[in-house]
């Protein structure tokens, strides 16, 4: 599956047993795979929920979820009945060969399956075991059902966002799942730290990641403002209208404000009592940006961006997502990898960092449901074809095994 010519990554040699579904967990394990870890994804007999998520792309072999493919490039897939004794035994045998286990079931589910950290540690004491959940593994809210929009509402983030949108009278709709992404990133960092610690101590770690606490990390100013209210209002960055769209102009400090005033042909703004200091501009931010909008309104968004950036004023036109694939900077950085699943070719983002040595890019393949069983179980557990066929016949294994 993965090209033999791929350069080893920083996590080459690390093996991960992945029980995750939906977004937060798969987001974490995809980053591990991008950096070279061998990720073995264990799926339910019908496949994890995201295999049926929109958008769906039609190919020669049926339909494939682009969402699933985006989050699971470069991972092996084994479809296994974890409720059967044989399924549990196979999983524990695999865990013995793995450095890291990641799951994002509701607290208690893995224990009922006999696959919690304590059970895994009986076969591999130095395992790094990471649990990702909405509210954490302990506490009065631990068992509460949690999806990213619910967690984002509970975190305070959505009301903070509402307060920053004066035209809205109720919290906005939620379609970008910051809580999932933040938890996935935090889990990835924690696992990387635990792997480093194990190199020094020989000991594994149990990691408990909460979506709610991950969301709190987004709100630096807001967390402190809630404890120490400020007298001066905060100047919020706001879009200004161009002739054909919107641009974001960010006069964040005195030199940039002066550069904006000069570039827009209004140096008199610099001496205006409303805008003399940062505090003055914060109190009169709407008036300042209304003046800026008089200038941007007469130009296209692209021209605004070009002229202001040339004047050392941070500015960007608002773009559709479809436009970023051809962005010269992202192309230069190699921000996307072309991958292939059963429906054909598509693009996925690489991790947003590079190393001077070692691959940090997404793999270019997506395993079909159960498509790695022969390779993984044969290589790691020495199961022969007759044994695998028996497991398929008894519905312990399913998917595209043969």
Describe this structure in words.
This protein is an alpha/beta fold. It has two domains: 15-219 and 334-398, Crotonobetainyl-coa:carnitine coa-transferase, domain 1 (Rossmann fold, 3-Layer(aba) Sandwich); 239-320, formyl-coa transferase, domain 3 (2-Layer Sandwich), CATH 3.30.1540.10. The chain has helices spanning 24-34, 66-72, 85-95, 109-112, 117-123, 148-155, 157-163, 178-201, 211-216, 220-225, 254-263, 278-283, 285-296, 301-310, 328-333, 373-381, 385-393, and strands spanning 15-18, 38-43, 56-59, 62-65, 75-80, 100-103, 128-133, 206-210, 239-242, 245-249, 315-317, 336-341, 344-349, 397-398. It has a seven-stranded mixed sheet with strand order 8-7-6-1-2-5-14, sandwiched between helices. The chain has a three-stranded antiparallel sheet with strand order 9-10-11, with helices on one face. The protein has a two-stranded antiparallel ribbon with strand order 3-4. Strand 12 (336-341) and strand 13 form a beta hairpin. Helix 1 (24-34) packs across helix 8 (178-201). The chain starts with 14 loop residues before the first strand and ends with a strand. The model has no long low-confidence stretch (mean pLDDT 95).
């Amino acid at each position: 599956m993965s090209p033999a010519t791929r350069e080893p990554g920083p996590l080459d040699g690390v093996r991960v047993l992945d029980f995750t579904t939906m977004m937060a967990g798969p987001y974490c394990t995809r980053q591990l795979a991008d950096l070279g870890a061998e990720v073995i994804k264990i799926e339910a007999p019908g496949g994890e929920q995201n295999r049926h998520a929109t958008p769906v792309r039609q190919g020669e072999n049926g339909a494939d979820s682009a969402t699933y493919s985006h989050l699971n490039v470069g991972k092996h897939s084994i479809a296994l009945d974890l409720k059967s004794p044989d399924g549990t035994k196979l999983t524990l045998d695999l865990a013995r060969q793995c450095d890291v286990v990641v799951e994002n079931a509701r607290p208690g589910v893995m224990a009922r399956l006999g696959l919690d950290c304590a059970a895994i540690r009986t076969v591999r004491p130095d395992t790094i075991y990471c649990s990702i959940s909405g509210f954490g593994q302990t506490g009065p809210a631990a068992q509460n059902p949690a999806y990213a929009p619910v967690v984002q509402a509970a975190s305070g983030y959505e009301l903070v966002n509402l307060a920053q949108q004066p035209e809205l009278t109720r919290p906005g709709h939620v379609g970008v799942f910051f809580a999932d992404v933040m938890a996935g990133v935090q889990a990835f960092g924690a696992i990387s730290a635990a792997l480093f610690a194990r190199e020094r101590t020989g000991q594994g770690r149990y990691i408990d990641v909460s979506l709610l606490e991950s969301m709190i990390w987004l709100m630096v100013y807001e967390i402190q403002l809630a404890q120490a209210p400020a007298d001066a209002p905060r100047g919020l960055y706001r879009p200004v209208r161009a002739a054909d769209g919107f641009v974001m102009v960010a006069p964040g400090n005195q030199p940039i404000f002066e550069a904006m005033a000069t570039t827009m042909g209004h140096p008199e703004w610099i001496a205006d009592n409303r805008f003399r200091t940062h505090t003055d501009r914060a109190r009169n931010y709407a008036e300042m940006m209304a003046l800026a909008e008089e200038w941007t309104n007469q130009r296209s968004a692209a021209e605004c961006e070009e002229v202001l950036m040339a004047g050392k004023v941070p500015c960007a036109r608002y773009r559709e997502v479809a436009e970023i694939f051809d962005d010269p900077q992202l192309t230069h950085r190699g921000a996307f990898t072309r991958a292939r699943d059963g429906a054909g070719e598509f693009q996925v983002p690489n991790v947003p960092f590079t190393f001077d040595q070692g691959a940090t890019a997404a793999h270019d393949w997506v395993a079909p449901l159960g498509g790695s069983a022969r390779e993984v179980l044969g290589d790691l557990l020495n199961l022969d074809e007759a044994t695998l066929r028996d497991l398929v016949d008894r519905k312990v294994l399913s998917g595209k095994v043969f």
